[in-house]
Q: What sequence folds into this?
């Protein structure tokens, strides 16, 4: 794929001028200012390969921001080589013209859809049952989604009752393009989510969900094999999420804080909603042994839980997240995992961006999930200047047939054609790393289960980073400031391997085990 | 009524006297505070007025973030 030359603004870490207290930053900005006096493509030093060709088009002043042109493919290397500057997109503003054709098209579509919708509602419904694949017992609480037209997101959905039954209004058709069956995740059922493709449903059909074998080699265990219980020792990881189950036999949570405003700060365990934080924590640091338990990538880390999702609510406030970041800095965390994000087009949230910058300046790496909107731009806060943005990849052969991950296989494929960037993963030039995030086995409250997402790829890379940094005691012993952050990023970049997807999809690649 | 986040941009905790000024701010309810932040509820003008009175503070609306979901849905 051809790289694209784009314009960016290079700005100091904080504020509008390079800091007189930061000699390296002052020197870099003065150097770039000289480039701007005779704009031409010139080499800028890279710590991780050949020099980066950059054209400095303009400079506001010797210590002030620069307007540059460079290839979007070079952004990950530029960010990693010069962490003392922010790389910001150039934003263009336009007259606020009103939309025209779109409104008429939407109205026409709505009118045309009315008649078929009425006919569909009158058609007979189909009831199916979902059972445990080994015991044949009914499974309640399974979210069943039957697509008659997957591209148009048309079909019917429901949740199984105590007998494992769900009734679907399919509008008279029995042909199903995709039938997704998502078992509950709190408590963990130990079942793979199912996927049937191009099937014909009939009254009374039974769907069997496959039990999870905890010794199965999923995509995480394919790339990050057999860690010992001490790997990651010396690194403290904070998980900013829905809390981590404190009583799971495979997990040891050293401490944390519930940062949800109005809730008990000591209640930093799982928020009893979907088990998301418990799954994330297990990918990093679970200490079990298959087949009785599960092992994370860096089980030796000190694991801390910062809960920002309240019980029963799906949103986390930027205030509570920033509070969690501040608390984690104060608690001595080395790496933060944030598997959360805003909506597409949500823009930059200056408050949360400030908190992430503060972490950067306090020697703390912040890994953030790209988002799961399907090849859409990287969402905020992954897109924040000092976030490490993580896309999700998968590998064929690391999930059983007829399970949900089969629906996530999509181009591009890597140099090894079994590897692919997950269909759901958001992508873009802000991407720093890619991680395994398709069909991941991990801990859930009361058991185990499968989840997929950039939410899972992020802790995979956090775990890999913790393993690598644990072997760098000199870096960990540095004063916790931006220089330590830069040293950690340099150490990670030196051990990161491209998988052949191009930087837009994978950043610098996957952190090596 | 809406909720706003105030954040102190200094290198250390905010000065003690700022807390007293915030407590006395009219038409604002302080919902939570840390040494560097406050979550307040009230009208936007009141929140911005408070931030303007406190040197080194920024004010932004409270924003909600989600867990990215990969589950497929109808519609």
A:
């Amino acid at each position: 794929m051809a790289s694209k030359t784009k314009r960016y603004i290079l700005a100091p870490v904080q504020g509008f001028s390079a800091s007189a207290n930061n000699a390296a930053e002052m020197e870099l900005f003065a150097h770039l200012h000289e480039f701007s006096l005779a704009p031409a493509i010139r080499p800028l030093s890279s710590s991780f390969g050949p020099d980066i060709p950059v054209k400095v088009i303009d400079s506001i002043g010797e210590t002030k921001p620069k307007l540059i042109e460079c290839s979007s493919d070079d952004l990950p290397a530029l960010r990693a080589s010069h962490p003392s500057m922010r790389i910001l997109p150039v934003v263009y503003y336009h007259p606020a013209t009103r939309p025209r054709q779109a409104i008429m098209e939407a109205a026409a579509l709505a009118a045309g859809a009315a008649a078929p919708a009425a006919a569909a509602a009158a058609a007979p419904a189909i009831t199916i049952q979902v059972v445990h694949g080994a015991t044949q017992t009914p499974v309640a609480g399974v979210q069943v989604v039957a697509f008659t037209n997957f591209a148009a997101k048309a079909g019917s959905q429901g949740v199984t009752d105590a007998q494992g039954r769900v009734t679907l209004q399919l509008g008279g058709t029995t042909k199903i393009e995709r039938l997704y069956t998502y078992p509950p995740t709190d408590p963990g059922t130990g079942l793979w989510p199912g996927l049937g493709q191009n099937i014909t449903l009939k009254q009374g059909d039974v769907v069997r969900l496959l039990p999870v074998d905890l010794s199965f080699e999923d995509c995480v265990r394919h790339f990050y094999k057999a860690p010992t219980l001490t790997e990651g020792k010396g690194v403290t990881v904070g998980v900013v999420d829905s809390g981590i189950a404190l009583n799971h036999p495979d997990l040891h949570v050293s401490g944390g804080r519930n940062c949800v405003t109005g809730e008990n700060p000591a209640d930093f365990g799982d928020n009893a909603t979907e088990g998301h934080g418990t799954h994330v924590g297990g990918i990093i640091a679970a200490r079990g042994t298959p087949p009785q338990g599960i092992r994370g990538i860096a089980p030796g880390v000190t694991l801390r839980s910062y809960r920002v999702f309240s019980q029963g609510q799906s949103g986390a406030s930027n205030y509570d997240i920033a509070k969690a970041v501040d608390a984690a800095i104060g608690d001595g965390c080395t790496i933060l995992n944030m598997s959360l994000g805003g909506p597409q087009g949500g823009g930059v949230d200056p408050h949360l961006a400030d908190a992430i910058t503060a972490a950067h300046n306090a020697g703390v790496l912040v890994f953030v999930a790209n988002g799961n909107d399907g090849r859409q731009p990287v969402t905020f806060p992954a897109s924040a200047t000092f976030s490490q943005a993580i896309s999700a990849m998968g590998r064929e052969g690391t999930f059983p047939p007829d399970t949900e991950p089969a629906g996530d296989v999509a181009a591009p494929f890597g140099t090894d054609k079994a590897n692919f960037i997950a269909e759901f993963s958001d992508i873009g030039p802000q991407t720093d790393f890619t991680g395994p995030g398709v069909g991941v086995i991990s801990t859930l409250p009361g058991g185990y289960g499968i989840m997929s997402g950039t939410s899972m790829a992020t802790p995979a890379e956090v775990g890999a980073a913790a393993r690598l940094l644990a072997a760098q005691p000199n870096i960990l012993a540095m004063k916790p400031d931006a220089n330590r952050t830069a040293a950690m990023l340099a150490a990670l970049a030196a051990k990161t391997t491209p998988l052949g997807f191009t930087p837009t999809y994978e950043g610098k690649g996957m952190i090596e085990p | 009524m809406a909720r706003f986040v105030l954040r102190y941009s200094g290198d250390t905790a905010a000065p003690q006297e700022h807390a007293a000024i915030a407590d006395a701010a009219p038409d604002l309810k302080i919902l939570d505070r840390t040494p560097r932040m406050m979550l307040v509820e009230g009208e936007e003008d009141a929140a911005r007025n408070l931030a303007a009175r406190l040197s080194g503070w920024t004010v932004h609306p409270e924003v909600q973030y989600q867990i990215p979901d990969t589950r497929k849905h109808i519609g």
